[in-house]
Structure formats: structure tokens, C-alpha cells
Amino acid sequence: MFYSQQSEILRDYEQSYDRHLFAFMMEMDDLVRAAPDSLILWSKLSKLVRNQQNLEAVAFYKVADDEFKVFNLVGSDISNESSFKCTSCLTFFTSPDCEGNDNSSCCDISYFFTQLGMTTDEGYIKEIRINNRCYGWILFKLDKSRKDNGFNFQLLEWLGRLVAWKYGQEELISKQQGLQCDLQQLTQEMTHSRLFVRGLYREAPWGVMQVSNGRIRFVNSKIAEATGYDVSDLINKYVSELLYPDNGCILKLDHFFAEIGSTGKGNMDMSIRCRNGRPLVYMVKGFTFSADDGIILFCCDKTDISVVENSLTESEARNRKILEANIDGVFIISRKGRLMYVNQAGCEMTGYSRNELTDLDLETLFPFNKGLEDYFSITRVIRRDLSYHGDSQLLRKNGEMRYVEIHGTTISLGEKEHYYFSIHDITRRKRNESELKLSEQKYRSLSENLPDCILRIGKDGLVTYYNSVSGVLFGDENITIGLLVSYLPFPDQKKIFGIVNRVITTCVIEHIEIEHFSVGEDRNVTLDWSFSPEFNDAGECYSVLGIGRNITLRKEAEKNLILAKEKAEAADKVKSVFLANLSHEIRTPLNAIVGFANLLDKPEFGTLQKKEFSEVINKNADNLIWMINEILDYAKMESGHLKIINNPVDLKEFLFGIFQSYRPKMNLHFKDHVEFRLQKTFDLKPSVKILADVNRLRQVLTNFFENAIKFVDEGFVELGFEIETDWVKIYVKDSGIGILKENQSVIFEAFRQEEETPSKKYGGTGLGLAICKRLTEAMGGSIGVVSDKNNGACFFVRLKRLV
Predict the structure, then answer these.
(1) 197: enclosing H helix or E strand
(2) What is the CA radius of gyration of the chain?
(3) If residue 123 lies in a helix (H) or strand (E), which one and from where to where?
């Protein structure tokens, strides 16, 4: 209709105006009709109008937001010389007096031009209206050189109508497309609905039959099973063929179908003949849904109905008993928030009666978690996910706070959806969890502060816990939760893995001592490991607890104790030998003294013989005194009463003096068999001073000389010294019997000698060299021997040299 009006206008123009203008209008009309793309249309139309009318710019705007009067640019054409820039979006202001009036005269056109950066003298604007609504604007900007001379306002009016027609056509196409989409969606929904309904019919717990013109078009398996027919046997049969051949039944069936045809529904008791001839009475309800669906019959055995009714009654009573016997509080709440049901456990849990709970608001029960806000949050979850599970806190009527676990879902009651909440009191569980957490914290604190290594190993052999001491032992980089125990850096990993498996299998505690290398301490340590089973409530071993106690100090103490015991036993043995030797050593000189003293009174011995007797007595007396002095000196050392007074000593002078004083005794004892001499280079050596106690140094060297007298039969005994930077080595060298290498450390111990048998050849107490060692060390020096068996010996002391 709209476009026919445009055609009439064109005919009027053809009669009233020049042919050129009419041809231009026809060209625009053809362009609007033929353009497939709106963007291309408005761009071409803008260019056509601007060129024909010699305008500076032409722009088309279409409504984007009718409520807020917003218009978007859909097409424009601007001359190259123009500085005019069309804005992509325009709005116009409606004065308060014209609010709700769509008349363009109410629009502030000057504000419109201001948005375009031009004045009302520079162009024209045409409003596009459809059904008394503003749908857009056409903008004409005049060439500055011509102003409005020659501008055809009839053309502007016609163009406005043409554009309005096109805008209306686009809106109709858009609405048509929307309607087509809605139609397709409705078609799909109807198809899905048909399939859904057909599926419901097929799986319904009662008989369903679809009848058209008296013939069965669909029947579900329930009717087929009840009548004994196959479904395929029943399709296309007349319903009347299933009834008993009696006119009364056929007539009732006709009335039944007629009632459904007139009212859309009907009821009837239908007696159907089964395949085996047995009658089956159905209560039938019929409905019409559409002409295509025909009549839908729902058939239910009357016997089944009574059974179902009884079952429903029993089920309701049983469910009510179950709800009332439930230890959890059950709350059923309508969508509007009204409490429809609460069981006895719910009343006891909250401390309120049913009537009190009906009038109670949720913020009273749940003040800790913002009551209503949490309730609406839970119901949103239920509506979206069909179920909710979470914890909250509930305030009882007496003010006691209880922890509860809430499970929510939806149920249908009386064809209305309700919220079903099961609330379980978990206060005891929460307290137990809190106590368990506290206990675990205490256990961890205890295990972390114990000096023992603690490992927990699961049945699968994986480490489930270890304390910091274990990290120090194995190294933090070598142990982690979830590590297989066989990968722990035990010295014997297979053995430990076997022990863990045995403990899990036999449930018997096993112990083992292992020497580890402690990564954190960078040393070897000994641990006493105990691997014991841990049991669950069912009495099954679920893990192994390994506790390793560091017994390094104890093991060292045991070793030291064993060594001390061995030393004590050796010392006891040595002392026993010493006492045996001492009795022999004392008895021998005493016997000589007593024996030869008795001979001095005998007249039969001459003076010369008595002189020899006196020398024997004196010699044995000296030996006895020497022996007693050694015992006394050692006793002083043991008791700590030995005093050392170190002073500077001129070594050459001292050695020469002791050599001269001891030479007569040496010559008297050795005669010409042994040479007692000073070091060959003694006179050539420079004078040197040492720090020593003169008397104790003389005692040491005298002991060396006495040993030489005892163990040298021929050869030499040499006294000398060597300078060694900060030390001076003083030695006594001989050509005696020498000492075995393995005995050279023994001879400096108390009561020890190289030969310790009762029938030994050489006498002595075994204290001399021990005393020498103690004296030398007390003077700040050291003592030693260099010897080979049968090749002599060189005893020496090193003392501090004074510069």
C-alpha cells in the first residue's frame, strides 16, 4: 500500500515537472528497490543525490534507540573539497513541554545542527516518520557558493517518503525474520514435545492408547502385556474389536467418543476381552489434544487402582513414620518461604515447637551466617544444581549454638515445588575434629621437638610423615612425603624395606641398630631403630611407625667402657706381675745384704774377703734404694705431688758434668768391654740453653745409663744431643740387645717391660721408663726410642730450646 502511494506521487511528478527531474526520481526509485545490501544502498543513494543536486554533503541517519532518541549514521557522501565530517551518532533534545510528543516541531533542530558542526543556514534536515514515529533523518549540506538557490524542496519531500518506505520495509523484513525464527523454535518445541509425550505414553505405568476414527494408532506395552496381545497386533484394530460383542458395550463406546468429541474429555468403564478370553475391566479417561493426535485414552485396571490407593496410603504413613523416626531434622518449606512440615527431630534440634517454628524467621535460627541471605543463596543453588550440601551454625531456643550439616533438594507436593532440607547435628563431630586437630598439633609439636627421627610409612611403602630430625639425618633434599621407603638413603635399603613389609604382615615390632651418615651433621652416627605397626579401628595394620634414637654417645661410652675395662684388666694383670716381680726384686738384694752381713762376723774369712762382702752389701743396698726411690717417685706422680721447676740450663756444661760423674761407675762396671763416650762432635757444637728441671733431667738420663748397664755386654754407650730448630734432642745410644718394634710403645707404660715372664733374665720393676716419660712431659718435652732387636737402642728426650 505504501509503495502504491509512492507510485501515484511519481505519476503526479511526471505530469507536473520536467522530464529530467522525473528521470532522476525514477533512478532513485529503482536504486532503492534493487539494492540487496542496506549499507551499499545508502552510500549509493547519498552519492546520487549529492551529485545531482550539487550539494557539499548528504547523510542518512536511522533510529538506534527510540527511547533515548539516538540515531546512527547508515550512509553518507561528502565532496572531496568539503571539510565537513559526519558524526556516527546523533541525539536530539526534546523540551520538557513536548515530553511524550513525537512531533518534529518539538525537537531542538539547532542542537541537532550543533552536533554536526554547522548552522541552520548551511543546510537542511528532513525527518523520516513512520506510523507517527521518528525513524530517521536526512541531512543536506549546501555548497557555500550556492546557498539554497536551485534546491528542490519537492525532491526533498519525495526522497523523505522514499526513505521512509525503505526503513519501513527493513523493519518489516526484520520482524518477519524474527517471526520465522519464533516459528522454527515453536516447531522444534512441538516436535520435542510430541517425542516427549510419546515417550511418556510408552513408559507410563498405566495403559495408554491413541485412537483416531475408532482405530488404534498407538498403544503402549502395558495394555499389550495385560491383554496378551503384541503391540503390532493391536495397531490399526478398531477399539470395538477388543470389546465383548454385546450391543450395550458398543453403544457405550460410541457415546464415550461422542462425549469426548463435544467436551474434549470423557470417562468410561471398559470391559476388554483378552487374547485368552479373560475379561479385563479398565477405568478409561479420554482426552483430545489436537486433530492430529485424535483421542488419547488412559486405561487403568480397577484392581490396580485399589492396590495403588492402598499402596499410596501405606506409603504415606510409612514415609511419615520414617520422617518422624529420622534422627535428622527434616524441614519442608514452600517456594514462598512458608514452613510446611517439620519432624520431631527438627523440633528437638532447635528447641522450638512446630507452631513456634511456623512463625519463626530464619535470622533467629541462623544469626551467625546472615540468615536470610544464606537461605536465598542455598535456594538459588538448589534451583540451579538440584541439590545443596554445606555446613552452618544453628542457634537453639536456649541460646546454645550447634554446628549443623544441611542437605537441600526440591520435592513436589500437590503439583507445587517445595524445598526439602535435611539438617544433621554435627556439633560432636566438629568438636572431635577440633580436638583431633589440636591433638595432631600437639603430636606434631612433640614429634618436632623430640631428638629422635620419626617416620610414618603407609602400607604401600610410601612415607606419609617425617619430622625435622629425619630431614637432618637424611638431608631435606633426599626425603619427601610420598617417597618410597626403599629410596631413603639407608645404608641397606633392601633390608629396611624387608623389615617394613614384615611388620605390616606379622604386626610384630622389630628393632635394628644402623650406622648412618648424617647429612646435616656431616658425620657418622648410630641409631637404634624401632619399627612398630599402627592399627585402625578394625584392628588392621595401616601404617608403620619408625623411631630412630641416636645412640652414638652411648655406643662411644660403651666402647670407652670396654677399653677402660680392658685397660683396667691389663693394669691389674700388670700390677700382679709387678708385685710378683717386686717381691723378687726386693728379696734378692735383701737376701744378699742379710747373707753377706752374717758372714762378716765369721772369723774364718780374711780381711780381703770381708771387703768383697762389704762391696756386695753396698751394691745390693744401692739397688734396693734405687728401686724404692722409683716406687716413691711414681707414687708422687700418681698422687699429683710431683713438682717440676723449669729453669734455663746450659746443655753442654750439664751433659759434660753428668758424663764425668757417671764415667767411674761405667768404667768400674764395664771394665774394658764397653766404651762410655761423648758424641764425637760434642766439642764442636755451639753452646745451647734449654728449659728444664736439672734434677729431673739428671734422673731421666741416669735411668737411661742404668738401662745401658743392664742390657749392654759389649760395644759402647754414647751421650750426645742434636739441635732441631726450636727443640733440642738429648740421647743415650748403646749397642745392647735392642727392642722389638711392637714393644717400643709398651716399655713406657707403668709396670711394663719387654720381657714379662717370671723367668726373665733381666731384673727391674718396670717403672723406670714410665717415670722418665712422666718427668719429660712435665718439663714440656717428649720421650722416645729408636731400636731394632739385637742392634742396640737410642733413647732420647726433646726439650724446648731457649733462644
Answers:
(1) helix 153-203
(2) 64
(3) strand 123-130
For cell 637404634, what's the residue? 528
Question: For residues 210 and 295, is the Cβ–Cβ distance under 8 A?
Answer: yes
The sign of the torsion formed by the CA atoms of 757, 763, 766, 769 equals negative
Cell triple for 345: 527431630
- The DSSP symbol for 538 reads T
Three-state DSSP state, 544: strand
Cell 750439664, located at residue: 654
> Does an H or E element contain 465, and which?
strand 463-466
Strands (E), 25-98: 57-65, 70-78, 89-91
Tell how far CA 460 is from the center of its chain. 19
Contact by Cβ (8 Å): 426, 405: yes
Could you give phi then psi for residue 784, rounded to 5 degrees? -165, 180
CA proximity to 304, closest of 219, 244, 220, 222:
222
| Element containing residue 311 per DSSP (H, E) | helix 302-325
Divide the 803 residues of the chain into consecutive groups of 10 and give the mean pLDDT of each group: 46 52 69 66 78 81 73 81 72 48 52 73 79 79 63 72 75 79 79 70 78 87 85 86 76 86 86 84 81 78 61 72 80 82 86 83 66 72 79 83 86 80 86 80 75 88 88 86 86 87 90 87 89 89 90 87 84 67 66 76 80 78 73 68 85 91 83 86 88 88 86 90 92 89 78 56 67 87 89 92 86
Long-range contacts of 366-374, Cβ-Cβ distance < 8 Å, separation of 24 or more: 366/392, 366/393, 366/394, 366/395, 367/395, 368/392, 368/393, 368/395, 368/401, 369/393
Q: Considering only CA atoms, which of 700, 699, 725 is closest in space to residue 784?
A: 700
- 202 contact partners, CB below 8 Å, separation of at least 6: 208, 220, 221
Integer Cα distance of 309 and 317 in angstroms: 12
Q: How many residues does the chain have?
A: 803
How would you label 9-33 residue by residue, b for 16+ Cβ within 10 Å and e otherwise?
bbeebeeeeeeebbebbeebbeebe
What lies within 8 Å, CB to CB, of 236 at 6+ separation is 215, 216, 217
Pairing of β 57-65 and β 70-78: antiparallel
DSSP summary character for residue 144: T
Q: Which residue has the cell 743415650?
A: 732
Tell me the β-bridge partners of 800: 727
User: What is the edge-to-edge ordering of all strands in the sheet holding 123-130?
Assistant: 89-91, 70-78, 57-65, 133-141, 123-130
How many CA atoms lie less than 13 Å away from 783 in the CB half-sphere? Answer: 25
Phi/psi of residue 661, nearest 5 degrees: -75, -30
* Gap between the Cα atoms of 125 and 112, Å rounded: 9
Query: How does DSSP assign 250-290, residue by residue?
Result: HHHHHHHHHHHHHHSEEEEEEEEEPTTS-EEEEEEEEEE--
Q: Enter the pTM of the model.
A: 0.34
Residues 6+ apart with CB under 8 A from 728: 651, 688, 690, 721, 722, 798, 799, 800, 801
Residue 658 CB neighbour total at 10 angstroms:
17
Which of these, 354, 355, 334, lies nearest to 345 by C-alpha position? 354
Return d(Cα 694, Cα 708) in angstroms, integer: 21
Q: Let me know the angle formed at the C-alpha of 97 by 93 and 101, rounded to the nearest 5 degrees.
A: 70
Residue 370: CB atoms within 10 A of its CB come to 13
End-to-end CA distance of the chain: 139
Rounded to 5 degrees, what angle do the CA atoms 40, 63, 120 make? 90
Strand stretches in 183-264, DSSP E: 207-212, 215-219
Q: What are residue 646's phi and psi, to 5 degrees?
A: -85, 135
Q: Which of 590, 625, 582 is nearest to 750 (CA)?
A: 582
Neighbours of 613 (CB within 10 A): 19
CA angle 283, 285, 288 (to 5 degrees): 160
All cell numbers assigned to 676: 762410655
- 80 backbone dihedrals φ, ψ, rounded to 5°: -65, -35
Distance between CA atoms of 694 and 634, rounded to whole angstroms?
18
